[in-house]
Fold:
Amino acid sequence: MKPLQVWSPVKLTYVEVPPQDAPVVEALDKAWADIAKLDKRIPEHVGWYLTGGRSTSCAQLSWDTDQVVLRINLQTRPDANSEPVNRTGEDLVTWLAHVAAHAVVAEEPPAGGEGRYHNPVFRDAARELGLDVEKGTTGWSSIELGPSLERRLRPDIKALNKALAAWKPEIGPRRNQRGPWSLRCACTPPRTIVTPSGNALKGRLTCGICRSDFKIDLSTVPPDRRDDVPPRMLWHPQS
Ligand SMILES: [Zn+2]
Ligand SMILES: [Zn+2]
Structure:
């Protein structure tokens, strides 16, 4: 059996799962494998990036890679002022099945009508998987497990609930929170500039030598700010 792996945005690679996350990742892998059996267009394996920030939104999904990484937030706030609590197995499995429906229609030409990502083509594919789909705020975006899919995935829901009952987020270092971030350009070796996070995120900063934009070195960004960095602004080490 291959060691459980999760995506590390710092190293831009897969790393071994920290022990405290292993039961959750195992349950996610199993749930995804069961969902992938519903349609051959759903990739059998995906990578996980557990985050305290937002989950991958439908608009960010890309399936034209052999390393699909799903960013998944395991917590939610019941309301704006309350402390975050762990999401339920049903909530997570519903999200996974929703994401899988996007994989099914990834090759389809976009259909007309309202809701770019939740158009009628998506709706039909999601219903085909066994999801109940109704109109929501962005097209056909109100998505629940249908009764027979819920029965089929119930063991996965239970396994996730069990794993989540014992799961706590790791509290990352916060010392860099307000500190400056490093940005690098495409020169060899890259030139480095250091600038406050607000300035780094404000817009393009271009190197006068290589004419490329400075990109943000994620290793200098504290974990709880990483979701704020758009992928196009990320610097990738060339080594
Ligand atoms: Zn969606
Ligand atoms: Zn340069």
